[in-house]
Amino acid sequence: MEKIAEQKSFGGLHQRYRHVSETVHCEMVFAVYLPPAAKEGNACPVLYWLSGLTCTDENFMQKAGAHRMAAELGLIIVAPDTSPRGKEVPGDPDGAWDFGHGAGFYLNATQEPWRTHYQMHDYVVQELPTLIETKLPFSGRRGISGHSMGGHGALVAALRHPARYQSISAFAPISNPMQCPWGEKAFRRYLGNNRSSWRQWDACELMAQSSANKPGDRVPILIDQGEADNFLQEQLKPEALEQAAAKHGYPLTLRRQPGYDHSYYFIASFIDDHLRYHAACLGNAD
Ligand SMILES: N[C@@H](CCC(=O)N[C@@H](CS)C(=O)NCC(=O)O)C(=O)O
Question: Can you cite a GO biological process for this protein (predicted)?
Answer without folding.
Answer: formaldehyde catabolic process
